[in-house]
Design brief:
Layout lengths: L1 H78 L4 H54 L4 E9 L15 E8 L8 E10 L5 E2 L5 E3 L5 E3 L2 E7 L4 E8 L8 E9 L2 E10 L1
Length: 265
Amino acid sequence: MAIRKNKITKISIIILMLLLLFFSVKYYKVKEELTTFKEHSELEIKVLESQLGEILHKYDSLSEESKRNAELIALNIDSKSINDESTSQINSTASSINDSIVFYAKRAQELNTQIAQKKQAIADNSKASQNTSQANLYKLSASNINAKGVKIYSDLYKANNSQIQQLRVCYTLQRNDVVKSGSRKIYIQVVNPKNQIISKDNSYVEDALGARLQFSAISEVNYNKKDTDVCAYVDLEKNKTIKGNYIINIYSDFTKIGSTIFEYK
């Protein structure tokens, strides 16, 4: 019996280490992606700003040329020395310049819009990353999660029946000096090997937007900013109790704060 307990403990520790490794890698990957996105976006902004500078230079040059043409036309009209051929040539040049001015003005506006969008995307990603980090500071975290099958012997339950009737789920709410003290509702969600949520009374909670969280058991925990050990019993549904790996999720409100695996052999 002691050997089996040690084996289960070792398996639980290995699973928790793998989960910790998974989330650490995921966090590093997301952080790396945000850094890469920022670097690429800043490089694109520099390229766009360079293009914008060239276009504005051309725009200014064309504007000066257009101004000179207008002065030339006015001068020729005043001197009455203009003829049909020179008028046609000057008007054609002026029209071409004006078309170019409109094109470059439009292109400059497009580049300004792209630069503004890139800068906004960088700001939004940085803000989202900062908000995520801050949000993690203000939420509970469950550790040392373990589950054990329970049999309840009675006149209606034969001793040779191998099927468990309950799960005893224990965990530790970790100390967090930022999280407010007070009563907390902690939900346990048990998912069987067929991906079915075990909920004997079909219990669920619903938020203001109508989203539902189906749970298997609930505990009212008095949290005082220190490590708090909690245990709860989950009543199993006979038709959903099968051999295999069960996922045990721990929620505080609608936020998952911990997870582990229970193997029912």
